[in-house]
Write a structure and sequence with these properties.
mainly alpha, 4 helices, about 0% strand, globular
Amino acid sequence: RAIQAGRQQLGITQKELATRISEKQQVVHDYEAGKAIPSQQILGKLERALGVRLRGSNIGQPLAK
């Protein structure tokens, strides 16, 4: 949900987010649907692209600058 909320806040599609992190749209879809097995590498790319924490206790909070 944090991935989807961050993406919607930026006003971009799953395909645009996938392009930004150099992954396929299906990967973004699977993460948003909770079907993907989390990869730390992909979560890191998503965090940087969205500017939102996706790991730890502050999920959904903005990344510290």
